[in-house]
Amino acid sequence: MRTLCSSTLIGEFFVIGFAALVAMKDPGLAVSTVWLVSGIAMVLCVLLCGMVTRPGGVALGWALQLALIASGVFVPTMYFMGAVFAALWWASVHFGRKVDEAKARFAAQAEPPSTTPDAA
């Protein structure tokens, strides 16, 4: 799960950076505010890469997805991009868990049976 979710988050890192470049051109937004908010979101993406498997990591990822969709208020294309990344996040979590379960099953099957010493 960690690999899939981290890949999605790194993709979001770049999309947030590009969206910030677009938002910078809006005369109603202060450039410093755009980069502060975008910078925090970008740092959160990187930090979440390491927190995905910890309790609350996936929930924080969902919060980031909602924030990405909500950023469409300032950059309308982000409604679409946010929805795409929310779908990717769902797929990463869903299929990542399935892969982790399959790996655990294969690892359990590969372990040699425990042998007890004969009492003879």
Please characterize this protein's 3D structure.
With about 120 residues, the chain is mainly α. It is built from four helices and no strands. It has helices at about 1-25, 30-50, 55-70, 75-110. α2 runs antiparallel to α3 and α3 (about 55-70) runs antiparallel to α4. The longest helix is centred in the C-terminal third of the chain and has 34 residues, at about 75-110. The chain is elongated. The mean pLDDT is about 90.
Secondary structure: helix percent: over 70%
Give the number of helices.
4
Number of strands: 0
Poorly predicted ranges: none
Radius of gyration: 20 Å
User: Oligomeric status of the shown chains?
Assistant: single chain
Report the mean per-residue pLDDT as an integer: 91
**What global shape is seen?**
elongated
List the secondary-structure elements in sequence, H or E.
HHHH
- Proportion of strand residues: under 5%
Distance between the termini: 48 Å
* Helix/strand class: mainly alpha
Biggest sheet architecture: none
